[in-house]
Amino acid sequence: MIIELATPDDLARLLAFREEAAAWLAELGSDQWRRPYPADRLLATIEAETVFMVRDHGATAATITLTPEAEGGLWLFEELAEPSLFVNKLTVARTHAGRDLGGRLLDWAGDRAYRSGASWLRLDAWTTNEGLQRYYRRHGFEHIRTVTEGGAVNGGPRVSGWLAQRAAREDPFHGLLDMTPAPVPIAAEER
Ligand SMILES: CC(C)(COP(=O)(O)OP(=O)(O)OC[C@H]1O[C@@H](n2cnc3c(N)ncnc32)[C@H](O)[C@@H]1OP(=O)(O)O)[C@@H](O)C(=O)NCCC(=O)NCCS
Asked: Which domain holds residue 77?
């Protein structure tokens, strides 16, 4: 298995991957990710070099987006003053589930955060998905608060407002996945 930056050629694969995850989530009774993710926004994150692919003999095993940019309207000014990396769209293929690949990716992300000088690894999870929230708590994340308003659709309910964080920490094994170049330290103006 290798981890590497996604390229624009991965766009269709990533959109299909997300649809597969949404179908699995629907089977679990969750409405998470029912709305397709806008392709132009996904492409912009790929071009910003924040999207990573885990490939297993050419097949997509997982993806994670890791960015210093916080989603608007979720984190407080004081929190944003602390250097952090944000995990978005963590997804593991059902073919690769049950082996804690997501946990290894979180360790990999925490290690990159640590090495880039960030104090925190942060995320916002689906507000109504308690199973997912338990997953993140099991992986050492502390729930900070749940933001319920200010969503993308007419400022309505916030679908992804369960905020959590874990201290960025060095992982000597880099989550056993680190095939990518070392991260560039977060610039002061990005903090
Ligand atoms: C979250 C995820 C990346 C974890 O991958 P993983 O480390 O391989 O872990 P698994 O998929 O084996 O899940 C571990 C357990 O958490 C549960 N779980 C994981 N995601 C869940 C979710 N969104 N809702 C409910 N339960 C979930 C699984 O059912 C499983 O439970 P079990 O141990 O009783 O079988 C993967 O489950 C996934 O892709 N989920 C769908 C996409 C998603 O919600 N991503 C998070 C975005 S913030």
From this structure: 2-179
Residue 21 makes CB contacts below 8 A (sequence gap 6+) with 33, 91
Distance between CA atoms of residues 61 and 70, nearest Å: 26
Please tell me the distance between residue 66's alpha carbon and the centre of ligand 1 in angstroms.
Answer: 18
39-87 pLDDT tens trace: 999 999 999 999 999 999 889 999 999 999 999 999 999 999 999 999 9
In a domain, 106, yes or no: yes
Give tens-digit pLDDT for 129-160.
999 999 999 999 999 999 998 777 667 788 99
Q: Is residue 186 part of a domain?
A: no
* 184: exposed, middle or buried (Cβ count in 10 Å: 0-12, 13-18, 19+): exposed
Residue 189 covered by a domain: no
Pocket of ligand 1 (CB under 6 A): 21, 25, 28, 30, 32, 90-92, 97-98, 100-103, 123, 125, 129, 131-132, 135
Domain count, the chain: 1
Give CA–CA dist 122/135, Å, rounded: 14
Answer whether residue 153 is part of any domain. Answer: yes
If one counts every other C-beta atom within 10 angstroms of the C-beta of residue 182, the result is 10
CATH code of the domain covering residue 173? 3.40.630.30
